Amino acid sequence: MQRESARFRVVINIGGLATGFVGTDLAIAQSLERRYHGYLASPLAPATCEFTVVRATARVEGDNAGVEITHHDGRWFIRRGSLSAEYDPVAARGSAHLDDRPYDIDSLLRIVHTLLLAREGGFLLHAASAVRDGHALVFAGASGAGKTTICRLAPPDAVLLTDEISYLRPTAYGYTAFGTPFTGELGIPGMPISAPVRAVYLLAHGDRTRIEPMRPAEAVRSVLRHVLFFATEPESVQAVLNAVCQFTRSTPVYRLEFRPEPDVWERI
Amino acid sequence: MSRLLGEVHEKALRLGIPWNVHLDLTWRCNLRCVHCYLVQREGPELKLEEVSRVLEELAACGTLFLCLSGGEVMLREDLFDIMERARRLNFYITVKTNGTMLEAEAVRRLAELNVARVDVSLYSHQPEIHDAVTQAPGSFARTMAAVRELTSRGVKVQISHVLMRQAAASYTEVRRLAAELGATYKLDATITPRLDGNAGVLRLNVPDAIWREIYNDPELVGPLMPDSPRSAPSALAELPCSAGHTACYISPFGDVYPCVQFPLRLGNVREQSFEKIWRESPALLRWRAVRNADLVVCRTCELHNVCSRCPGLAYMEGDLLGPSRLDCEKAYARTGLRPAPLAE
Amino acid sequence: MDPVYIARHPAAAWRRLEDEVIVISASDSSLFTLNEVAAEIWECADGRTPLAEIVAQHIVTRYDVGFDEAYSDARELVEQLAGKGILIVSGEPITGGDGR
Asked: Would the CB atoms of A43 and C29 count as touching at under 8 Å?
């Protein structure tokens, strides 16, 4: 009786992408609410896309399982560890088997959001970002490059959007960066706000703080290296490449070598 | 629409339940907004006991979503008595207010009563422009203070941004302000005619270029865009609007309409029970029989998928079954394709 | 068997819709639909009637199921709804639920 006795709907809004989840397993609803607190929209809100979720039967340990994304018959098929999902972009609906651990839901959100944003010239970037004076500063880099460090050094008037993954979307006035609940070492979710991007810094450790503008071709290559993208199908890859080109044309890109000292924020 | 929400909504439709009710408790207001659609009117507002009876009737009819609005709803001295009764009847309550009269104590009570959301109107991020619209110096500051108080008490706030010519390009800034305040943002880009049909306020609408910009902003265009969730063929999809089917409006004087923006009078709750009006009003039954296929011009328009045609506006423009030119203009701005009614 | 009392959270908004009950949590973060049996239990959750009595009088008789099975399912359901903050579960009668 209890299996189907209640159904739920929860809507998570990250980067302006309202993603609905419906299901009967209330434990999943609970994980969603806990994990994405601050990013919950009203359960009555219209969703950009919606998933029916059921609990995965096979539990896969470890979170290093590779992502497998295929596209056929107009649908996306996603597999990663215990997560398996399919998504129909025309109906904007999908279904997913997942574990109620945060990792699967994070993966599903990121993968689907990369696909959704690619259509409009947006993308997800391995980058910390923060809002200062009404504009967002984006710090891209691989793990260990200093994303969390730069966030720890941030002055009090900077509002942290994320120390791990930034959402970037084009608007009439250039690109906007959005706060996300995805955290790196800092372990603190970003604020659910957004701001137009002022500049992007590619992080590198150095013995002193040095900022250099990047040439266009180098900027594209460097930013591209930190873009999260999972699909390999040519049309989607081209869309992401175009998005990054558009982004680097409208946004200054710098290489930032820094020593972990507070004055780095005054230099940028 | 969401599977779950869609199912619930379809069911409410099949059962003929007034699922969403907008109840204006007063048309009095402390501000004098230049674009207001209300027409001042004398006559006694529903008293607390009358409102209570209406709430009981609505609960019995199955209404879940109750929007309390005005005028300025805070001008009702018995507002919290009304809300308390509504909460006892288990309604999901949202409140629309300009926020200028929301002192800390009122906010505390709203939080205590578990009001689901407070919608606060804002016209600009710049105090002088906002205050020029409301014609009340200092209103911006008071509204801001109220929003901060609400969010700090954990009450959800939506900034309803009415975009007009005076601040045509301000939506990005107001959206940012809403984000800073911890509120959601809702853009209302259309100024509608006054309920008496006076269209003078329409000159306050933003220029087409801004509409075009809005419809190219992926954050603002909701699920109306062509590649967004499509409703499966359903009973709902054949209807011009949920107004009068699962939604309705009740004025402070007890008049019942399909929607606040649809001045087709269905009856008055002082003369008849709400249920009788909802089940038997001849005007309502006539409106309920209308299907999209009956819309003389719109049924052949190639833009119907991206159009938010409002039957209330069409009715105010003179033809319930005709197009609403304001929506034609928006569909034009959205697509760059000129709908038939604008070709003349 | 220790008595269990259940009460609807006073902050939840809800309405019966034919054979279901629709509930929205106080924090406005989740929407629930409860099926026929769960809806029955929900409507009986007045804080005063023990869950066992609700199950015996409203579920066992109407749905032709054994008490033990129905009761254990009902326990699981009420714990889940309590976890979602829309139901109060207690070993004592409850005042202050929406039955007041």
From this structure: yes
Nearest to C74 by CA among C88, C91, C54, C94: C54
Cβ neighbours of residue A114 closer than 8 Å, sequence gap 6 or more: A123, A124, A228, A229, A230, A231, A240
Mean of pLDDT values over C74-85 = 92
User: What tokens were used for B47?
Assistant: 């008293």
Give the separation between CA A152 and CA B11, rounded to whole angstroms.
52
Q: Chain B: nearest CA to C72, how far in angstroms?
A: 27
Instruction: Name the maximum alpha-carbon separation found in chain C.
Output: 36
Q: How far is B85 from chain C (nearest CA, A)?
A: 12
A75 to each of A85, A112, B147, B202, how far by Cα in Å?
10, 12, 43, 45
For helices B104-112 and B139-152, what crossing angle results, to 10°?
40
What pLDDT, in 10s, does the model give residues B95-115?
Answer: 999 999 999 999 999 999 999
pLDDT tens by residue, A143-171: 888 999 999 999 988 989 999 999 999 87
B64 touches C: beta carbon within 8 Å: yes
pLDDT of residue A60: 61
Domain boundaries, chain A: 2-119, 123-267
Q: How far apart are CA B249 and CA B246, in angstroms?
A: 11
Write out residues 110-139 of B within 8 Å (CB-CB) of A. 116-117
Are A172 and B184 an interchain contact pair (Cβ–Cβ within 8 Å)?
A: no
Distance CA C5, CA B51 (A): 34
C neighbours by CB contacts (3+ pairs under 8 Å): A, B
Block residue for tokens 């999943």? A28
Chain A touching partners, 3 or more CB pairs below 8 A: B, C
Tell me the pLDDT tens digit for each residue of B202-239.
877 877 777 777 776 666 654 443 333 334 446 667 88
Euclidean distance between the first and the last CA atom of chain B, given in angstroms as a whole number: 35
First-residue to last-residue Cα distance in chain A: 60
**Alpha-carbon torsion, ordered A180, B171, B263, B46, to 10 deg:** 70
CATH fold for domain A123-267: Phosphoenolpyruvate Carboxykinase; domain 3 (3.90.228)
Mean pLDDT calculated for residue range C71-100: 88
pLDDT 10s digits, A200-243: 999 988 888 899 999 999 999 999 999 998 888 888 889 999 99
Question: Residue A184: which of A156, A143, A155, A124 has the closest Cα?
Answer: A143
> Residue B197 CA to chain centroid, in angstroms?
18
